[in-house]
Write a structure and sequence with these properties.
It is a single chain. A hairpin with a 5-residue loop joins β1 and β2. The protein is 72% helix and 1% strand. The chain is globular and about 60 Å long. The chain has 386 residues and is mainly alpha-helical. One of its GO terms (cellular component) is endoplasmic reticulum membrane.
Length: 386
């Protein structure tokens, strides 16, 4: 169990070595598989055949909806929901680490997508229609990366915070199984080929190791600095993230102007995807999701603002919920903040100017939602004694 120290920071037990060893073994196996060109191409061609077969011979309306819903839980909405759950059970320093690893992981993934520009199977194959359409590039898989990074990091932080050493193997088995099943749903609904999912899975593991097993002390000191006033609002990590936003925006402008996607990809997508999906460009879709992800940084700014501007010293202290019911109430409060403050994005038309779609709807709305959630939920939890 974590113990409080005099300066308000949280003393953590060391990170679980079992989680690190498992992740390293999986990464090594994936590297050996994907470094062989013939295996890489075999995975691509055969998984495309599997997708076409599934969509033609095994597609059922209710099953498609179920698999698409499960698949969507690895997207921005599913991760935001999981972050709301995490806020109810994690210390603030662990929660900020989870925010950091999630936002950085998706940012790196989308940057790699914009640089590689690998097509999803329905960009070039007119032989099937996916259940739903995403318009970012395909590799590495964003769902494969984000789900792996988030849930394995969440499990590791739970094990460390609550001392769940006797349950960690079970938790990791459940975590890896969920990640693998999530990847399968992406194949079932026709959104990714196997090698794209494996690359995303491997990237997610590497980012998980970097943050939760290597940079863990840095994030503990970052939160300790917020509590003691030693951490600047715009520290090196935050500056790096904003520089990544600037780089991604410049890369988007360059690609849009000088290196657009092949025309036959655009033609195939228009045939494969429903006309109700508002499509601008593949690089726009990457940058938009990139900025939505960075909106979660509002939690960091909310934590800082609450401690040093509003002086909510009591609200920044974590108290473990005593019952499952109180945990559920905490989660619902967190979700309510995010949902209510995300409502304004509904009233921004999809035909608005691109800067409005990117920086107001894409970044500012989720930033305000997570900022407010971090700002006030601690006080509400204390007031309701939950």
């Amino acid at each position: 169990m974590a113990k409080s120290v005099s300066n308000g920071a949280i003393a953590q037990p060391p990170a679980s070595k079992a989680g690190l060893y498992i992740a390293l073994v999986v990464i090594s196996l994936l590297t050996m598989i994907l470094m062989v060109p013939s295996v890489f191409e075999w995975l691509r061609s055969n998984s495309l055949e599997v997708i076409i077969t599934i969509r033609k011979d095994y597609s059922q309306k209710n099953l498609d909806k179920l698999m698409d819903l499960i698949s969507a839980m690895g997207d921005k909405y599913g991760i935001f929901l999981a972050l709301c759950c995490a806020l109810a059970v994690l210390n603030m320093n662990n929660y900020l680490m989870l925010i950091g690893v999630s936002s950085f992981g998706v940012a790196v993934n989308l940057l790699v997508k914009m640089l590689i520009r690998d097509a999803r199977p329905y960009f070039y194959s007119p032989d099937y229609q996916p259940v739903s359409c995403d318009f970012e590039y395909g590799s590495p898989s964003g769902h494969g990366q984000s789900v792996t990074t988030f849930y394995l990091s969440f499990i590791t932080l739970l094990v460390r915070q609550y001392g769940l050493q006797n349950k960690k193997l079970t938790l990791y088995v459940v975590g890896y199984s969920y990640c693998v099943f999530m990847c399968f749903t992406r194949i079932f609904v026709g959104l990714h080929t196997a090698e794209q999912l494996l690359l995303g899975f491997g990237l997610g593991l590497m980012i998980h190791i970097l943050f939760v097993h290597i940079l863990v002390e840095y994030f503990d000191k970052l939160y300790e600095g917020i509590e003691t006033g030693k951490t600047r609002l715009f520290n090196r990590y935050i500056v790096l993230l904003f520089l990544m936003v600037i780089f991604a925006t410049l890369l988007y402008l360059y690609i849009e102007r000088f290196d657009p996607a092949p025309q036959y990809w655009l033609d195939t997508v228009k045939k494969s995807c429903p006309p109700s999906k508002h499509f601008i460009s593949f690089h726009y879709s990457c940058l938009n999701k990139y900025l939505v992800t960075f909106g979660s940084l509002g939690a960091y700014f909310g934590c800082y603002f609450r401690r040093w501007v509003l002086k909510f010293k009591d609200g920044s202290k974590f108290t473990k919920p005593k019952t499952v019911f109180k945990t559920v109430i905490r989660v619902l409060i967190n979700i309510a903040f995010v949902v209510i403050l995300s409502v304004p994005s509904i009233f921004i038309p999809k035909t608005s100017p691109i800067p409005v779609l990117l920086f107001v709807k894409g970044f500012f709305v989720p930033f305000a939602a997570t900022f407010s959630s971090m700002l006030y939920t601690g006080k509400i939890v204390k007031f309701l004694n939950i």
